[in-house]
Amino acid sequence: MDKKTRKSRKSLTREKIINLLKEKKTALTHKEFQDFFNNEVDRVTIYRALDFLVEEGKLHKVVNLEGGIQYALCQTCTHEKETHSHNHVHFSCLKCNKTTCLENVTPEIKLPKNFETTDIQILISGICDKCNE
């Protein structure tokens, strides 16, 4: 496989990751991406694609209740001091185990003097609207 084919395949992998997240509308784990690709793409390529999309500012990482990493689409992120930050809340449903970004809920955290925020991770657990119907 030549360099151009590898680059094209990597781009296709990233595109499929973005499309899957748009379709699911929830944060997904690396394992869920592996299941989606069904061994068509190796796990290292998926990790690299996810890392690239995080660095590019298209995805962000969410630490779930078990301490695992999930990946979510960036919707309304801000770029302050060249650091990608996500000043929104994540919600983890205890019934369906889905983690979603709550873009319309903005946390307000006031730190003491001389403290500087670089990243905010707020995870609320409970029952989501779909499971609560």
What is the secondary structure topology, with strand pairs?
Elements: H1 3-24, E1 28-29, H2 30-37, H3 43-55, E2 59-63, E3 69-73, E4 78-80, E5 83-85, E6 89-93, E7 99-102, E8 122-126
Parallel strand pairs: 6-8
Antiparallel strand pairs: 1-3, 2-3, 4-5, 6-7
Walk me through what this model shows.
The chain has 133 residues and is of the alpha+beta class. It contains three helices and eight strands, in the order H-E-H-H-E-E-E-E-E-E-E. The protein has a three-stranded antiparallel β-sheet with strand order 1-3-2. Helix 1 packs across helix 3. The chain is globular. The termini are far apart. Mean pLDDT is 83; it is low at 78-83.
Task: Briefly summarize what is shown.
The chain is α+β, with helices and mostly antiparallel strands. The chain has three helices and eight strands; from the N terminus they run αβααβββββββ.
Question: Helicity, in percent?
Answer: 25-40%
**Number of E-state strands:** 8
Form type? globular
Strand content: 15-25%
- What does the radius of gyration come to? 16 Å
Annotation field: number of helices: 3
Structural class by SSE content: alpha+beta
List unreliable stretches of 5+ residues.
Answer: 78-83
Instruction: Give, in spatial order, the strands making up the sheet with the most strands.
Output: 1-3-2
Main beta sheet, described?
Answer: 3 strands, antiparallel
The topology string of helices and strands comes to HEHHEEEEEEE
Distance between the termini: 51 Å
**Quaternary:** single chain
Overall pLDDT: 83
